[in-house]
Amino acid sequence: QVQLQESGPGLVKPSQTLSLTCTVSGGFIGSGSIYWGWIRQPAGKGLEWIGHIYISGSTNYNPSLKSRVTISEDRSKNQFSLKVTSVTAADTAVYYCAAVGSQNAFDIWGQGTMVTVSS
Amino acid sequence: DIQMTQSPSTLSASVGDRVTITCRASQSISSWLAWYQQKPGKAPKLLIYKASSLESGVPSRFSGSGSGTEFTLTITSLQPDDFAIFYCQQYNSYPWTFGRGTKVEIK
User: Fold this and answer.
1) Closest residue to A103, CB basis, from B1, B43, B55
2) Is B96 in the A-facing interface, judged by CB distances under 8 Å?
């Protein structure tokens, strides 16, 4: 059974880069799920798709964040990562990593990690 | 972007009630719609994919229907464990987008 776990700093200063890693256990990032993605949720608000990396290595990003976001994978560590540059308070949220399987929907989620942007 | 509009935003119901939540897309998304349940402090959980397919392990009291621009999630007999926020999500085209959520609370 595949499980996901986010990790990374819980506090990032404005204008700096937010970096998070999602570790995949119980499965291999190079097989099984089709997409490995990131979704975020500001406190008390709804869900926003950030982007994902396809099993082939190609990526898709939300245009609202596209110029600031990079999603990459490290198969040797069975991890995929998120970087968001030039962060502001508006980037404060719980960040989830998630996997899209054959259902083409997010069927596996990490527990989420809170990231606060503040000086 | 495709806008997903859920209604109602809040729904008060009792255990045993039949509950229906609606999700409308700003343009046709065929059947590329998923429903998720989120409880406080937890990650969303996939309930329904491709508009009407029940995710493995999800109780059969949950069902989805619709295609094109109008979709519904129905809970046939609300259980105490079902009080949560429900989100729809389209994956017909990028960017993938979510509805704002429907909170199902105890009446």
Assistant:
1) B55
2) yes
- Angstrom distance (rounded) from CA A77 to CA B85: 34
pLDDT of A78-96, one tens digit each? 999 999 999 999 999 999 9
Point out the residue among B46, B53, B94 whose CB comes nearest to the CB of A106.
B46
Q: Does B36 touch chain A (CB under 8 A)?
A: yes
Position A30 confidence tier, pLDDT thresholds 50, 70, 90: confident
Chain A residue closest in CA terms to B31: A104
Query: So what's the pLDDT on residue A33?
Result: 75
